[in-house]
Amino acid sequence: MGNEPQNFLPAFTDQEGPQPGPSWAKRGWLDTLADSTSDLVSAMDPTEMTLAVAKAAKDAGKAADPAAIEKAAKLSIAAMTLVRLYRVRGHMAADLDPLGLSNREGPADLTLEWHGLAGKENEEVYVGGVLGMEWTTVGKLHQRLREVYCGKVGLEYMHIADTEERRFLQEKFEKPGETIQFTPEGKKAILAAVLRGEGYEEFLAKKYVGTKRFGLDGGEAMIPALEAVIKHGGSAGVREIIYGMAHRGRLNVLANVMAKPYRVIFHEFSGGSANPDDVGGSGDVKYHLGTSTDREFDGISVHMSLVPNPSHLETVNPVVLGKTRAQQAIRDDLKKKEQVLPVLIHGDAAFAGQGVVWESLSLSGVPGYDTGGCVHFIINNQIGFTTSPKFARSSPYPSDVAKGVMAPILHVNGDDPEAVTFACKLAVEYRQTFHRDVVIDMWCYRRFGHNEGDEPKFTQPVMYDRIRAHPKVSVAYEARLVKEGVIEPGTREQIAAEFTALLEEEFEAGKSYKPNEADWFGGRWSGLNKPADPETARRSVETAIEPKTFDALGRVLTDVPADLEVHKTLDRVLTAKREMFASGEGFDWATAEALAFGSLVMEGYGVRLSGQDSGRGTFSQRHAVWVDQKSERKYVPLSTLPHGKFEVHDSTLSEYGVLGFEYGFAMADPKSLVLWEAQFGDFANGAQIMIDQYIASGESKWLRANGLVMLLPHGYEGQGPEHSSARLERFLQLCADDNMCVCNITTPANYFHVLRRQMLRSFRKPLVIMSPKSLLRHPLAKSAKADFMGEKQFRRILSDTKDIADEKVRRLVLCSGKVAYDLMEARDAAGKDDVSIVRIEQLFPFPGDPLALRMSRMTNLQEVVWCQEEPRNNGAWFFAGERIEESLTAAGHKGMRPTYAGRDASASPATGLASRHKAQQEALVAAALGL
Q1: Interatomic CA distance for residues 683 and 678, integer angstroms
Q2: Number of helices (H) and strands (E), helices first, in the chain?
Q3: Which of 99, 174, 423, 900 has its CA 20 to 30 A from that of 536?
Q4: pLDDT at position 46 over 70
Q5: Could you provide one GO biological process annotation from this protein's UniProt record (predicted)?
Q6: Around Cβ 853, how many Cβ atoms within 10 Å?
Q7: What distance in Å separates the CA atoms of residue 923 and residue 931, rounded to the nearest whole number?
Q8: 161 vs 43, which has greater pLDDT?
Q9: Total structural domains within the chain
C-alpha cells in the first residue's frame, strides 16, 4: 500500500500488472488472517488452550491436576472470548455523548453474565499476555477491558484485515502507559487551546451580533487536537499539512490553528476584502476563505494551508487529496509519502450523506492517486441542519462508510479534550506508520443553531434544553485539572481574560487594516501572473517545435522494444504511425496529442493525464500504454523521455472525485499539464459541482488560478442521448471575466498547439475541450508535419479547406467542431462555390476581432448562418449569436444578423434512433448550405 513504483511509470512497470490473489485484492490486504490469541481469539482449540494453561500453571507454581487444568482452560476460553468481543464491540458501550442523550446501554455480549462468568469475578484466569497480563482475576480483566474500550475513546479496528495494523492499535490501547497520558504542562496547553477556541467564538458573538459565523461552540476540543496533529506530525517527519473543511468552526481553525491574524478576520467581518482593492474578483464570504502559514513546535517548522471551498458539502475532499499528491511529487516524497499530510475536517451528516466522501476514500491506495493516508476528523454535532441522525443515515455512526477502505475509527467524547488530543496523536502515528486513512469521530454538540440566527428548538427541543444546561468544555476540564492539582482555581478566568485583551487589541487594529498583497502568485507559481492583455486579445505564444524534436518523438512513439510483444492491432497502428513520420503527412489526433505531451516533457514540464480509460483511450485511439500480450508488462513510451515527467492513469469510475483530485493537483503544480478525460463528455455532469464551484469561479472567488484541462468527447454520431453531448452550452453559460477557455477543435495540429499553449503562456486558465470521436480517424481531420513547426501556432478560427475568394462569398456558414466536415463534404458535392465555411475553434474567449476581420473582406456577403449539431436550446447558438452580430457590425455589415441551422429545441440532447439521427443531420446540413 502506498509504495507503487514511481518515476511516473518507468519504461517497464508491472504497477498494474498481475497480482497474486483475487482481482479485487489490494496489496498489503492479502495477509493471512490466522493469528495468535493475542489478536484473534474467537476460534481457540480447547486442547491447545488446555496445554497452554497447564504450562502456565506449572511455570507459576500453581496446582496442576487434570480436573483443575480443564476447568482453568474453560475459564480461559470464556475470558478470551470476552476479550475478543470487547475488541470488536467495546466501542458500542463507550462513553461518547457529552449530552448523555444517545441510548448506549451496550451489547449484552459484553457482560459477564453472557459469558457465564457472573459470580466468578474473584477466580484467577490465564490470559496469556493479553492487556499486559498473564494471570489475573475475571473481575480485574473485565474492569480493565471497560477502561480500555469503553471509556471516552471507543476504537473500531477489528474490520481491518492487516494483522500488523490491528496489533499496532491494540498495543496503543491495551498496554499500560500507552493510553491517554499528558504531562502537567501538556494539560495546561490543552486548556489554553480550548479557551482560545471558546473565547474567540464568544468575542465574535459579542462584537458581531447576529452575524453568521458557523461557530465551533461545543466542539472546541478540536483546537488542541489539531495542534497535536502539527506537533506529532512534525516529529514523525511531516513538513506540510494540507487542510480541507467546511464552514463549521472554520473561522476558529483559521485563527487558532492556522494563525491567520485576528485583525485580518475582524477586517473581513466588517465587510472588508481579503485582498487589495485593485486585484478584482468577486471575493467570497469569510468562512469559505483559505490561508497558508508556518507553525513551529519543538523546533520543527510545518507549513500549513487550508484550501478555500464553497458551501457545497465535502467538495473540497478530493481537491485536498490532489493538491497533496502534487506536493508529494514536488517534494520527491511519492515513495515514502511521509512529508505531506492531508487532513480533512467533516460534519457528521455530510460525511454520512455525501457521495463524494466515498469517491475520495476510494482513491486511498489507488496507484496514481494514493496520498499515503488521510487523517479525517468528524465534528459530530449529532445533528445536520435540522435533521437528527436517524433521518440522516442508516448506520450507527457517521463514520461507517470509512470501513470500506479498512480505516480505523476512533470515536471520542468531545467534552474530554485530552481524549480528543490523544486520538489525533494516535491517528498521526498510525498514518505515518502504515500510510493509510484513519478517522476521528468526535462526538460533541452545536451550542447554537445551524447558524447563529437559527432557532434549533423548532426541531430538537430536548437536545437544546440539555445543551443550554450543559457546561462548556473548559469549565469541566478546569475542574478536573484543579482536582488533579495541575492548576489553581481561577486559572481559566485568568487565561480567558488575557486572551480577550489580545482580541480587543486586534479588533482595534482591524479597523485600519489594509491588505497590501494578493496571495496567489508565490512559491511554485512565481513567474506566472494575470494576463496582461484583455480576454479578446490573441495572446499568441510560440508553440511550434523544432524538426529534430519532431523526429526524435517519432522514434519514441513508434519503436517497440525487442522483448515486448504488442497486440496485433496495435502493431498495425504503429506501422501506420511510422508511415506518417516517413511521409510527413496524415498525422491523426492521437499522434498530435502524443507529440504535444512528449515535446512538453522534453522541455522540462510534467504531464499528467487521468481518466477512466485514459491509457488506451475510450475509442482505442491513444495507446499511451503498451501492454505485453504474455506478461502484461506495461511500457509507456513517453515516460522514457528526459527532463520532465509523463504519467497516465486509468482512474476509479468516478467523475466528481477524480475531477476534483486533478483540479487540486493543478492548483499545486502550474508546471505540469494536468488533464482529466471523461469517458464520454456527457458524464462530466456527474462532476457539475466541481465545474461550477471551482473550475469556473475559483479564481474570481479565491484568487486561485488553475490550468486544468478537461477533455470531453463530444459529437453527434447517432449514439444516443448519453453519448453525444458534453453539454457545451453549460460551459459557455459559465464563461465570464476571462475565467476559462472553451474550445471545439477540428484539426490534430490545432489540438497540438492549444495543449502547448496551455503551458507556454505566462498565466493559467482552465481549458475545456470538446474532444472528438469520429474525427479521431476522419480522413479529412489530418495534419501535415509542417503544421507542427515553423511559425505555426494555435488558430482561434480556421478558414475553409476550399479556396474561395473572399469577394465571391455570398453565404457564410459559421460552425464549431465535427459538423464542419459534414458541411464541407455536402457543399462540395452540391458544387456550391459561393458558400464559405469558417470554424470557430475557440468559443471563449470569443475571437470577435479576427472573425470581424475575416468577414470584412467578404464584400458580397448576404447571409450568415450559425450551424450546429446540438438542439437549438443546447450547443453554442445562444452564446455565439449575439457575438457574431457584434462581429458583423465591426466588419461593416451593420444590420445583418446570423440565422440558425440545427436541430429543434429538445429536452433530450440527442435521439436514440439511428434513422432519425441521420435524417436530422442531413436536414441541418442542407438548411445551413441553403440546399
Answers
A1: 6
A2: 28, 25
A3: 900
A4: yes
A5: tricarboxylic acid cycle
A6: 14
A7: 9
A8: 161
A9: 4
| Strands 606-611 and 645-650, bridge-based pairing | parallel
Task: Name the domain boundary from 513, 538, 561.
Answer: 513
DSSP states of 661-726 as a string?
HHHHHHHH-TTEEEEEE-SSGGGGGGGHHHIIIIITTHHHHH------EEE-----SS--TTTT--
Nearest residue to 21 (alpha-carbon basis) of 13, 12, 32: 32
- In the chain, the N- to C-terminal Cα span, in Å, equals 63
Residue 530's Cβ-side half-sphere holds a number of Cα atoms within 13 Å equal to: 18
Q: Which of 14, 20, 23 is nearest to 32 (CA)?
A: 20
Residue 360 CA to residue 249 CA, distance in Å, equals 22
627-667 pLDDT per residue, tens: 999 999 999 999 999 999 999 999 999 999 999 999 999 99
pLDDT digits (tens, 9 = 90+) for 250-283: 999 999 999 999 999 999 888 887 777 666 677 7
Same-domain status, 724 and 817: no
Respond yes or no on whether the N-terminal peptide bond of residue 721 is cis (omega within 30° of 0): no
> For position 745, what pLDDT does the model report?
98
d(CA 659, CA 662): 5
Angle (CA) 712 715 720, round 5°: 105
Residues 508 and 558 in one domain: no
CATH at residue 684: 3.40.50.12470
pLDDT at 287: 65
Region of poorest pLDDT, from 6-20, 420-434, 545-559, 592-606: 6-20
DSSP string of 61-114?
T----HHHHHHHHHHHHHHHHHHHHHHHHGGGGS---TT--S-----GGGSTTT
Q: Based on the domain organization, do 235 and 310 belong to the same domain?
A: yes
CATH of the domain at 105: 1.10.287.1150
Q: Is 294 helix (H, G, I), strand (E, B) or coil?
A: strand
Tell me if 792 sits within 8 A of 858, measured CB to CB: no
Single residue among 788, 823, 856 that ends a domain in this structure: 788
pLDDT score of 63: 63
CB 611 within 8 A of CB 647: no
Residues 778, 813: one domain? no
Please give the biggest Cα pair distance in the chain: 116
Please report whether residue 372 resides in a domain: yes
Residue 819 sits in the same domain as residue 925: yes
The strand pair at 709-711 and 634-635 is best described as unpaired
Q: Answer whether residue 206 is part of any domain.
A: yes
What is the sign of the dihedral through the CA atoms of 520, 525, 530 and 535?
A: negative
Asked whether residue 773 falls in the same domain as residue 820, the answer is no
For position 843, which CATH number holds?
3.40.50.11610
Residues 505 and 606 in one domain: no
C-alpha 777/C-alpha 182 separation (Å) is: 68
Question: What type of residue is 136?
Answer: T
Strand 797-798 to strand 835-840: parallel, antiparallel, or no bridges (unpaired)?
antiparallel
- Looking at the whole model, is its pTM more than 0.85? yes
Give the start-end residues of each E strand in 98-246: 124-126, 135-137, 153-156, 240-245
344-368 pLDDT tens trace: 999 999 999 999 999 999 999 999 9
807 and 774 in a common domain? no
Q: What is the CA radius of gyration of the chain?
A: 32
Read off the pLDDT band of 237 (50, 70, 90). very high
CATH number of the structural domain spanning residue 360: 3.40.50.970
Please write down the HEC assignment for all residues of 299-330. Answer: CEEEEEEECCCCCCCCCHHHHHHHHHHHHHHH
Examine residue 141 and state whether it is found in any structural domain, yes or no: yes
* Whole-angstrom distance, CA of residue 535 vs CA of residue 539: 8
Cα–Cα distance for residue pair 174/178, rounded to 1 Å: 7
Position 587 scores a pLDDT of 98
What residue numbers bound the domain in which 713 lies? 547-788
The strand pairing partners of 309, in sequence order, are none
pLDDT digit string, tens, across residues 296-334: 999 999 999 999 999 899 999 999 999 999 999 999 999
